[in-house]
Amino acid sequence: MTNFELGEKLIKEAEQFLDEAKRAYERGSWNIVVRRAQERVELSLKGLLKIMGAEYPRVHDPAEFFISILERRKIELKEEAKEKLRRISADLAERRAPAFYFEKDYDEREAEEAKEGAEFVLGVVKGLQVKLKA
Q1: SS3 13
Q2: Which range of residues forms the domain containing residue 93?
Q3: Which of 21, 26, 50, 125 has its CA 20 to 30 A from that of 69?
């Protein structure tokens, strides 16, 4: 499997987590929504890194590395989008384990924010993916 194929597979998996998050949201499983949102963010960023041929770090918050690769390769992304990516990725990476192990109970508002953040990141990644294909 090529880097490009693997990257696309990771992004496709990230998209699948949306369906799982929606079902968890409908059930009121706020912690699972937060967890799936984090996984979507991580897989989305790592998928695009693979497509770009970059070996991603084995961490749950790859945003800083992702942005550094974009900057080194002169791939344009607005500064406010970079900051939002950093914030979303860092926040969800921090919430990842407490959400999964129910060390903290997240509420509907927090689940909604996590879901929206993951949708933002995936949207940015999909937009960059289209640019890179062109």
Answers
A1: helix
A2: 3-133
A3: 21
